[in-house]
Amino acid sequence: MAPARRGLLLVVEGPEGAGKSTQVKRLSAWLGGRGQRHLELREPGGTPLGERIREILLDDPTREISAPAEAALFIASRAELVERIVRPALERGTVVTLDRFFLSTYAYQVHGRGLPEDEVRAANMLATGRLTPDLTILLRLSSEEGMKRADRRGIRDRMESVGDGFHRRVEQAFQRFATVEWQHAHPECGPIVAVDAGGSEDDVERSSREVLAGRWPDIFAG
Ligand code: T5A
Fold first, then answer.
1. Inter-residue contact 99 to 138 (CB < 8 Å)
2. Which residue, 65, 181, 192, 221, is most buried by CB atoms nearer than 10 A?
């Protein structure tokens, strides 16, 4: 008998306020409407431990956490999510949509905070057991525009409160991740496709679904 089809791991990434949560919700709604087995998750979070880590990392803008401890906390949340939720879901054939994954650690902790890439990369591989996304949609928006969108919602969280220079480095890192050269040198990240996030929510959803339909027409076309 042929093995059951493994699910898909679809990641949505990008700078603050790029519209990741909005698009993950829209994708989930689309999948639900098609009767597709799916699961919507976010990082950090998604497990009891991950949600506690999320509170520690984000809730208090005045909390000081060293850069290595910050990286270790994001990675611990990821290890728990992958082991307990993502892998079992993929084995059941579920389409998992994930709002941020380890590209965020590369962007924020390596390029933003300046931690050594090789060490963060090794710790991350330990956490994911080398699980590679089937596709990452990278929403492309300037950090200024993204922060304006995020600010309309109210007070900044701990990561949003770090200075503009930090967020510009994060934005530049995400731009680099979309290049063929960078992806070739980082095969653990799987394919990354940039989508312009400057248009309306409908426009971004349409572009994202076009990318997905090009790869998995049985699920996303129509
Ligand atoms: N982090 C995370 C790390 O440093 N390292 C890591 O390893 C990981 C995993 C997580 C924080 O942790 C950092 C990154 C983050 O700083 P979070 O709240 O989960 O924090 O994540 P954010 O990505 O920052 O969440 P945001 O909600 O700020 O951004 P989103 O999800 O990109 O944006 P969204 O969809 O919530 O939209 C923001 C606003 O814009 C509007 C929405 O209605 C909303 O009001 N909007 C649009 N407006 C106009 N046009 C569009 N196309 C729009 N799309 C959405």
1. no
2. 192
Q: Determine how many CB atoms are found less than 10 A away from the CB of residue 184.
A: 8
Instruction: Give yes or no for residue 100 CB within 6 A of ligand 1.
Output: yes
Q: How much distance in Å is there from the Cα of 147 to the middle of ligand 1? A: 9
Report the pLDDT value the prediction gives residue 222, as an integer from 0 to 100. 80
Digit-coded pLDDT (tens) for 48-97: 999 999 999 999 999 999 999 999 999 999 999 999 999 999 999 999 99
pTM of the predicted model, to two decimals?
0.96
Q: How many A from CA of 31 to the centre of ligand 1? A: 21
Query: For residue 19, how far is its CA from the centre of ligand 1 (angstroms)?
Result: 6
Residue 17 Cα: closest atom of ligand 1: 29
| Structural domains of the chain ordered from first start | 8-216 (3.40.50.300)
**Enclosing H/E stretch for 104:** helix 102-104
